[in-house]
């Protein structure tokens, strides 16, 4: 197992550590609930060094992205970021990623668990289309600063104005250039910082002196409460973006990407869809719990937990088309107890500051 | 920790305390620390008869769920309703305000089968390997 380069700091900060996608990472420091509420109510700092960071270069870089993702790549402005998915030839999702266009390359942030798979998936298409894939992961680090009060921590790092939502801007720390990307996984205002390894530790120390460090436990409860999917839970090679509620990432006016015909066919069929649900009463739904309707199992919970800011159980599940309307009554089988629940459109937590004007 | 004579422990990390002839039950500090942030506690209804070692309740954390076993057999005579609104009390004060339920014991001999504090500490150390 590899350790994050910030492991010594996490130990000093009293982190409880956990294995995640082959990495030893902080699970929590003060406790998941406290950390969750710190991000919703103020600001928190996340170590995301485990994620994969790639640079796609060369004449064929755009064609590569137009092949492996279904999104509008040509329409990206320099400095603009876009959430999208890597597709295989069957329309299955190899990973979900953030792509950012720069003047001479595209930056791709991939999930730690899918880092090798993403590289393997990109390689043959890159070779064919005249693009190179540089793995920047070891030479760089990644820190997120998230929360409605995060701007005060971020502004000193910026050379110019605060980036707009889903845009990135150049910044600097102690004279070293960094990238400040207005992206995140919490539903709150904030950025992800992409930085050279040499300044990673001093930057982390500076930030955790101003806001609490947040572990992977709260990262998961924060993302679930705003309905963001997690690869391996909501997303996999077995589903396409159409069923996963990610049809909005698809540029339906464009062809030529892997899985295009499958996506067209799935869009016409629409037999199942990823849905959110909330528990009507007490209890905590968990990944793998059966979803019931009329006494029959109609799906399985892909992610479930207590919504720490909304105060009731929330989750997501793939459901048949007839049951996807918000307000539909279902039940969740939590260890034999059938807890009444209601289909609801995420975000469950509706006061997020993610698009706040700064 | 409380008076060592009157507090005992289970292998499932509950504590049991004799108070006025009733056995008050909660989970240990070790258990709450291992579970992480408690977000929901499901407690038995008063009047329910439980057997020693039977799951009488559940405690849910942000990470996982665990059963709360009845340390001894008997009738549930009180439950800590305050935990419904403030489950985090189990983390903050596991031996005090985080108590879960009380049993009127049916068989006093069962009490003697529970671990005392020294035995429980040794058991936790052994589990940690």
Describe this structure in words.
The complex is a heterodimer of chains A (358) and B (129). Chain A is α+β, with helices and mostly antiparallel strands and 358 residues long. Helices cover 21% and strands 34% of the residues of chain A. Chain A has helices spanning 7-12, 32-41, 61-68, 115-129, 151-154, 197-208, 216-225, 260-269, and strands at residues 2-3, 16-20, 23-28, 44-47, 52-57, 81-87, 93-101, 106-110, 132-135, 140-146, 168-173, 176-181, 190-196, 213-214, 272-279, 290-293, 296-306, 313-320, 329-334, 337-344. In chain A, β19 and β20 (337-344) form a beta hairpin. In chain A, α2 packs across α7 (216-225) and α3 (61-68) crosses α4. Chain A is globular. In chain A, 49% of the residues are buried. The mean pLDDT of chain A is 97. Chain B is of the alpha+beta class. Chain B is built from 5 helices and 9 strands, in the order βββαβββββααβαα. Chain B has helices at residues 29-35, 82-85, 89-92, 109-112, 117-128; strands spanning 7-9, 14-19, 22-27, 38-42, 49-50, 55-61, 65-69, 74-79, 101-105. In chain B, the strands form 2 sheets. A 6-stranded antiparallel sheet of chain B has the order 1-2-3-9-8-5. In chain B, strands 4-6-7 form a 3-stranded antiparallel sheet. In chain B, β1 and β2 form a beta hairpin. The A-B interface holds A 16, 27-28, 31-34, 217, 221, 282-284, 286, 305-306, 308, 313, 335 and B 36-37, 39-40, 42, 58, 60, 62-63, 65, 84, 88, 91.
The appropriate CATH architecture of chain B is: Beta Barrel
Placed side by side, the strands forming the largest sheet of chain B appear as: 1-2-3-9-8-5
* Number of helical regions of chain A: 8
Q: What fraction of the residues of chain B are assigned to beta strands by DSSP? A: 25-35%
Q: Assign an overall shape of chain A.
A: globular
Question: How many helical elements of chain B?
Answer: 5
- What is the name of the CATH class of chain B? Mainly Beta
The profile of the biggest β sheet of chain A is: 6 strands, mixed
Overall number of strands of chain B: 9
- Tally of discrete structural domains of chain A: 3
How many structural domains in the coordinates of chain B? 1
> On the 0-100 scale, what is the average pLDDT of chain A?
97
Rg of chain B, Cα atoms, Å: 13 Å
Q: Which residues of chain B sit in consecutive blocks of at least 5 with pLDDT less than 50?
A: none
According to CATH, the fold-level topology of the largest domain in chain A is Gyrase A, domain 2
Structural Rg of chain A = 20 Å
Q: Give me the strand/helix succession of chain A.
A: EHEEHEEHEEEHEEHEEEHEHHEEEEEE
Distance between the termini of chain A: 40 Å
Structural class of chain A: alpha+beta
The greatest interface between two protein chains, and residues involved on each side, is: A-B, 18 and 13 residues
């Amino acid at each position: 197992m590899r350790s994050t380069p910030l492991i010594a700091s996490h130990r000093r900060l009293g982190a409880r550590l956990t294995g995640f996608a082959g990495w030893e990472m902080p699970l929590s420091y003060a406790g998941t609930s406290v950390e969750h509420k710190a991000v919703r109510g103020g600001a928190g700092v996340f170590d995301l060094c485990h994620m994969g960071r790639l640079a796609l270069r060369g004449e064929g870089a755009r064609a590569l992205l137009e092949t492996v993702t279904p999104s509008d790549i040509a329409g990206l402005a320099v400095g603009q970021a876009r959430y999208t998915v890597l597709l295989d030839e069957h329309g299955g999702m190899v990973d979900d990623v953030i792509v950012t266009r720069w003047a001479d390359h595209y930056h791709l942030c991939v999930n730690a668990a899918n880092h090798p798979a993403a590289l393997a998936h990109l390689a043959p298409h890159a070779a064919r289309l005249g693009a190179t894939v540089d793995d920047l992961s070891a030479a760089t680090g990644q820190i997120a600063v998230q929360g409605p009060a995060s701007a005060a921590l971020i502004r000193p790092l910026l050379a110019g104005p605060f980036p707009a939502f889903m845009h990135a801007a150049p910044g600097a720390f102690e004279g070293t250039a960094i990238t400040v990307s207005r992206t995140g996984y919490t539903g709150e205002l904030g950025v992800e910082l992409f930085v050279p390894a040499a300044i990673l530790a001093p930057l982390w120390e500076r930030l955790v002196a101003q806001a609490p460090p947040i572990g992977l436990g709260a990262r998961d409860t924060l993302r679930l409460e705003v309905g963001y999917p997690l690869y391996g839970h909501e997303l996999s090679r077995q589903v396409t973006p159409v069923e996963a509620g990610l049809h909005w990432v698809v540029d339906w006016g464009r062809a030529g990407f892997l899985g295009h015909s499958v996506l067209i066919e799935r869009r016409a069929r629409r037999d199942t869809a990823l849905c959110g649900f909330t528990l009507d009463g007490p209890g905590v739904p968990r990944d793998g719990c059966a979803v019931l309707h009329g006494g029959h199992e109609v799906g399985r919970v892909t992610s479930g937990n207590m919504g720490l800011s909304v105060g009731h159980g929330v989750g997501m599940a793939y459901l048949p088309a007839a049951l996807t309307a918000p307000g539909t009554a279902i039940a969740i089988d939590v260890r034999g107890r059938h807890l009444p629940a209601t289909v609801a459109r995420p975000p469950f937590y509706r006061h997020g500051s993610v698009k706040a004007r700064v | 920790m409380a008076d060592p004579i009157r507090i005992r422990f289970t292998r499932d990390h509950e504590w049991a305390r004799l108070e006025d002839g009733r056995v008050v039950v909660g989970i240990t500090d070790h258990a709450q620390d291992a579970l992480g942030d408690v977000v929901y506690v499901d407690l038995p209804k008063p009047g329910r008869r439980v057997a020693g070692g039977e799951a009488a309740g559940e405690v849910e954390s942000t990470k996982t769920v665990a059963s709360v076993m009845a340390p001894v057999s008997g009738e549930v005579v009180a439950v800590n309703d305050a935990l419904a609104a403030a489950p985090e009390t189990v983390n903050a004060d596991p031996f005090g305000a985080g108590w879960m339920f009380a049993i009127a014991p049916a068989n006093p001999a069962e009490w003697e089968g529970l671990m005392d504090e020294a035995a429980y500490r040794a058991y936790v150390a052994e589990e940690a390997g």
